[in-house]
Design brief:
The structure is a single chain. With about 725 residues, this protein is an alpha/beta fold. It has 4 domains: about 1-150, Rossmann fold; about 160-340 and about 345-375, Rossmann fold (3-Layer(aba) Sandwich), CATH 3.40.50; about 375-495, ANL, C-terminal domain (GMP Synthetase, Chain A, domain 3, 2-Layer Sandwich); about 510-725, Heme oxygenase-like (Heme Oxygenase, Chain A, Up-down Bundle), CATH 1.20.910.10. The chain has 27 helices and 28 strands. The strands form 6 sheets. A 13-stranded mixed sheet has the order 2-1-11-10-12-13-14-15-16-21-20-18-17, sandwiched between helices. Strands 4-3-5-7-6 form a 5-stranded mixed sheet, with helices on both faces. GO terms for molecular function: ligase activity. This is AMP-dependent synthetase. It holds the Pfam family Haem_oxygenas_2.
Length: about 725
């Protein structure tokens, strides 16, 4: 095999063979072990063309990617936050014939012909027969940008260009005493993949790769900065990469708890979105050596980076591999990485017009002035870059996210996401203070506090960058009301930005969902801790509410008014699929060593009894359609947590498959049910949809109370938790 095709194997051969290179929840890997595994993987990949990886952070993800490069196969990283439509698009556009994943149910549900063919390092290997897709010559990786539609662009990148980027990062930071890197961002994000994996490997640094949940990532529920801080300290990390939102959450937590960051930290790169200088200053005051950078997928990730001794308010100087210039106020970049887009003709000129407005100062440092496509033109004809005002708002730690709008309006409006623990009502004073430093045409005249913009609810990219068009669509009536024209608001009809009611429901209940997914027992399991007593306690309460599901649905069908008669076939389908599920739970209890008969004869704990009582009350006294708020909560929780929870619990306790029929069946079935539910909700009237929203918020509280009562119930019988990893 030519040396160029075995770059990473050759690099590892030059390191001391017993050096630990990668570590994570699944164990550690020495240079020698990695070389052996890469050779074996190259043989296994011989019949593959495009290899997709959909998996949590860990050494296996890295090994799979390096093996693809060494074997000359195209690597397709799939972000876990991609929707089913985005996954389908990526797999179809790339012509992927192999998937390595810890989520085989999601891939199978796409109905693209993938079949399980084996396992490797705890991941599932899936293959299909598919015609090859023409890609630009030299494509080593396809990175799909997380845009505002279900059809993100697949950026084709060369191996040489990616190594250029990594080598340039190493050169830029070579004087810093960096001894260990902690991968804090999802590896499917090119920023972490190149600057957090490739660059440390080139430098000879060990890399720690814990699961994302143990770093504080909580999906739609947000982010737990305490978990990130714990990992930074425990790993003695010298470097990590963050997006601005995570840096802000971490600094707010350190401030609130009166702590400073780990003294082992030497360098924290911050990129993915614009960073307020005040945030960098605040972070450094708390011991976080934060430095802003700039990059984009089409350039192979990092383009500019500040560093100690060559720092400033901008994004830093261009790295050695990038040709950077500003033409007509727009930033343009050329590297060897960008080859074109999957499914499109390769560009004749690989200089990329970024769409970012910026300028270079006398030191050659890049300063961003906004986005060309984001420029607002008020009804007075004044041009305003929203990033300018947003940066001023985000400089205050009480604001986690901010999006300013006002195109064609006489004044600007801001949607503000308060930081955890911040008083939303007090944000008015902040807006007044920011306005005092702005010219009159750029002042915020109206504002509203809203729920977070996340990749999970479709309102932000994986890097945390807000998706403005989708945010505008989701908050169309809020914005109209701010301008005093709620009754005259023109609905958004752009099919690329219009949100279904199911998506609106996900967004509107994001804060309420936190009460459920933030329960200690959920966090413990996601971080690798669980006990048999806790699992049996969960199954017991699950039995007590699931045994009411079929009777509730039967009552619902009978109570539906004539205007909702169209729902009855859907209710009948639910009944047919839900009958007998409580018996599955009793079987699981018996298989896990519990007393199923005792559970059948027992009474529920108060939280479960209250949730069931509320469900019956909705049907008998309220609007029966609101019952689907409960369906939304329970099925959405199953899709988000059930399969992962089952795997973690089984790994920890060594229980048989027969002890997990409820979790695994619902984790799979409810993926199909959510699509059915989304169609049903879309047909409802706005009044019925409002009732569903109210009920969903209540059920998140009631269902969360069930989970929050579990640890105390389990502690008396089994105080010691067993690590899931």
């Amino acid at each position: 095999m030519p040396v160029a095709e075995a770059f990473w194997s050759a690099l590892l051969a030059r390191r001391p063979q017993q050096d630990t290179v990668l570590s994570g929840a699944t164990g550690s890997w020495t240079a020698a072990a990695m070389r052996d595994e890469l050779r074996a993987l190259q043989e296994r990949l011989a019949d593959s063309r495009v290899v997709a990886v959909l998996a949590d952070n860990g050494p296996p993800w890295v090994l799979a990617e390096l093996a693809c490069q060494d074997a000359g196969r195209v690597h397709l990283p799939l972000p876990a936050f991609f929707t089913a439509a985005q996954l389908q698009h990526a797999l179809h556009t790339s012509g992927a014939d192999t998937v390595i994943t810890d989520q085989p149910e999601r891939i199978g549900a796409l109905d693209l012909g993938f079949c399980l063919t084996g396992q490797w390092q705890g991941l599932h290997w899936m293959r299909r027969v598919v015609a090859p897709v023409e890609l630009p010559a030299g494509t080593a990786k396809i990175s799909f940008t997380s845009g505002s539609t279900g059809a993100p662009k697949g950026v084709c990148l060369s191996a040489a260009g990616l190594r250029d980027t990594a080598a340039a990062v190493v050169e830029r930071l070579h004087e810093l005493p960096l001894t260990r890197h902690l991968a804090a961002l999802p590896l499917a994000l090119l920023l972490e993949n190149v600057a957090g994996i490739h660059a440390p490997l080139l430098r000879g640094m060990p890399i720690h790769l814990p699961p994302l949940a143990s770093l504080g990532w909580q999906g739609a529920a947000g982010f737990d900065p305490a978990a990130l801080d714990r990992q930074v300290r425990d790993s003695a990390a010298a470097s990590l990469i963050l997006v601005p939102e995570l840096l802000k959450a971490w600094t707010a937590w350190l401030t609130a708890t009166g702590q400073r960051a780990s003294p082992a930290l030497q360098f924290v790169a911050v990129g993915g979105a614009r960073v307020a200088p005040a945030l960098i200053e605040h972070a450094r005051a708390l011991g976080i050596p934060a430095y802003q950078g700039y990059g984009l997928t089409e350039a192979g990730s990092v383009v500019c980076l500040n560093r100690p001794g060559d720092d400033g308010d901008g994004c830093g100087a261009a790295l050695a591999h990038a040709a950077l210039r500003c033409a007509d106020g727009e930033v343009r970049v050329r590297t060897r990485a960008f080859l074109g887009y999957a499914g499109q003709t390769a560009p004749a000129d690989t200089e990329f017009a970024t769409g970012d407005l910026g300028h270079l100062d006398e030191r050659g440092h890049l300063h961003l002035d906004g986005r060309r496509g984001n420029l607002l033109v008020t009804s007075f004809g004044r041009n305003v870059s929203p990033e300018w005002i947003e940066s001023a708002l985000l400089a205050d730690p009480r604001v986690m996210q901010a999006v300013v709008s006002g195109d064609g309006r006489p004044a600007l409006a801001a949607l503000l996401v308060p930081a955890q623990g911040a008083d939303a009502a007090a944000l008015g004073g902040l807006v007044e203070r920011v306005n005092a430093g702005l010219p009159d045409y750029a002042r915020v005249a109206h504002w509203a506090a809203v729920a977070p913009f996340t990749a999970a609810n479709g309102l932000a990219t994986g890097n945390g960058r807000p998706l403005r068009a989708r945010i505008a669509a989701a908050h169309a009536h809020t914005l109209a009301a701010l301008y005093g024209a709620a009754d005259d608001a023109t609905p958004f009809t752009d099919k690329e930005t219009e949100m279904s009611f199911y998506e609106q429901l996900q967004h509107a209940t994001a804060a309420d969902r936190q009460h459920l997914v933030g329960a200690p027992i959920v966090a413990d399991c996601l971080q690798g801790k669980v006990s048999r007593a806790a699992y049996l306690a969960f199954l017991t309460q699950a039995y007590h509410h699931v045994r009411h599901t079929t009777p509730l649905l039967m009552a619902l069908g009978g109570r539906l008014p004539e205007r909702l008669a169209w729902m009855r076939p859907a209710v009948a389908e639910y009944i047919a699929e839900e009958i007998g599920h409580e018996e599955w739970i009793l079987n699981d209890i018996a298989a896990a060593g519990g007393d199923a008969d005792a559970v059948r004869a027992s009474r529920p704990e108060l939280p479960a009894e209250l949730m069931v009582a509320y469900a019956w009350d909705i049907i008998n006294r309220g609007n029966p359609a609101a019952f689907f708020g409960m369906v939304f909560v329970l099925e959405g929780t199953s899709v988000a947590l059930a399969l992962t929870a089952a795997d973690r619990i089984q790994q920890a306790l060594g229980l048989p498959d027969a002890a997990f029929s409820y979790l695994r069946s619902h984790g799979t079935l409810d993926q199909e049910h959510t699509q059915h539910l989304a169609r049903l909700l879309e047909r409802m009237t706005p009044q019925d949809q409002a009732e569903v929203l109210h009920a969903a918020r209540v059920f998140f509280k009631l269902y969360g109370d069930i989970f929050r009562a579990l640890p105390a119930a389990a502690a008396e019988t089994e105080a010691e938790a067993v690590p899931c990893n």
